[in-house]
Amino acid sequence: MASGVGILDECLRAYEEVKMGHRWLYVIYKVSENLQICVEERGGHGECSSIVSWCLSENLQICVEERGGHDKTYHDFVNTLKEAEKLKQCRYAIFDVRFMQGDIPQEKLAFFLWSPDTASIRQKMLYASSKQALRNNMRGIQAEIQCCDDTDLAMSNVLERCMRKYT
């Protein structure tokens, strides 16, 4: 944990809800204004409710920003990341990618580091140095995707990465 940022239990619970329970299509994590990573929105199976960050300012912690339910799409996921880009901020995310490989349905958990070109150097460094602490607690991730622009976020790029055995 080179950056000194901790991880709230809520982050790992949200991850397990995607991995084991398939409750969410995606979860987005952020570093809050006071250097905390927090969850923003939750939605699942037709429900969607906003969650206010409940991190303490004296603690540097990762928390959930948004949970997207199965009523959401990859387009919704990308739009949320693009909103962060407008704020010149980075994000972490997991997405339950489902696709067909030949005639066989596939499902892969992808971990994203969204680090847009517009993000500040401070944001990029904080997210890069905190990523492994979060990632190490997420067993079962099958693809890791670092995105800096729209090309990186394109579903074709994500599918290419997910079709590999492990990326």
Structure, explained:
- This is ADF-H domain-containing protein.
- One of its GO terms (cellular component) is actin cytoskeleton.
- Belongs to the actin-binding proteins ADF family.
- The protein is of the alpha+beta class.
- The protein has one domain (about 5-165): Severin.
- Helices cover about 30% and strands about 30% of the residues.
- The protein has helices at about 10-20, 75-85, 120-135, 150-155, 155-165; strands at about 5, 25-30, 35-40, 40-45, 45-50, 60-70, 90-100, 105-115, 145.
- The strands form two sheets. Strands 1, 2, 3, 6, 7, 8 and 9 form a seven-stranded mixed β-sheet that branches. Strands 4-5 form a two-stranded antiparallel sheet.
- A hairpin with a 2-residue loop joins strand 4 (about 40-45) and strand 5.
- It is globular and about 45 Å long.
In short:
One of its GO terms (biological process) is actin filament depolymerization. By secondary structure, the chain is an alpha+beta fold.
Q: Notable features of this structure?
A:
167 residues, alpha+beta, Severin, 7-stranded mixed β-sheet, 9 strands, ADF-H, ADF-H domain-containing protein, ADF-H/Gelsolin-like_dom_sf
The ordered H/E elements are EHEEEEEHEEHEHH
Supply the helix-strand structural class: alpha+beta
Which stretches of 5+ consecutive residues score pLDDT under 50? 46-58
Oligomer: single chain
Task: Give the helix tally.
Answer: 5
Beta-strand percentage range:
25-35%
**How would a textbook summarize the main sheet?**
7 strands, mixed
Distance between the termini: 22 Å
CATH hierarchy: architecture = 3-Layer(aba) Sandwich
Helix proportion range: 25-40%
CATH class equals Alpha Beta
What does the overall shape look like?
globular
Mean pLDDT: 84
Q: Number of folding domains? A: 1
Q: What's the number of extended β-strand segments?
A: 9
- CATH fold naming: Severin
Radius of gyration: 15 Å
Could you give me the name of the CATH homologous superfamily? Severin
Pfam family, one: Cofilin_ADF
Protein name: ADF-H domain-containing protein
InterPro entries: ADF-H, ADF-H/Gelsolin-like_dom_sf, ADF/Cofilin
Keywords: Actin-binding
